[in-house]
Amino acid sequence: MDITFDPEKDKRNIAERQLPFERAKDFDFKTALFEIDNRRDYGEVRYRALGLLDQRLHALIFVETERGIRVISFRKANSREIKRYEKAQS
């Protein structure tokens, strides 16, 4: 899977969250919880995924591309997201 992203957003994410967008290649898509992010009209279909990376739950916002995904946002999941994920897994 091809992972693309805006290099400037990646730099900000590394500075703020110590999490490079390229780590999305290690995100566990198999056990992730997916939903369409329809909070706004983005002009494209964006997905929110809650899944594991290094045994910690993370939130990944992305757009599907022909060859993979384009990362919009990537961070550790908050407590509300952890509860939603755990409820869906039970």
Automatic annotation (TrEMBL):
It comes from the Bacteria. InterPro entries: BrnT_sf, BrnT_toxin. Pfam families: BrnT_toxin. This is BrnT family toxin. It comes from Candidatus Glomeribacter gigasporarum BEG34.
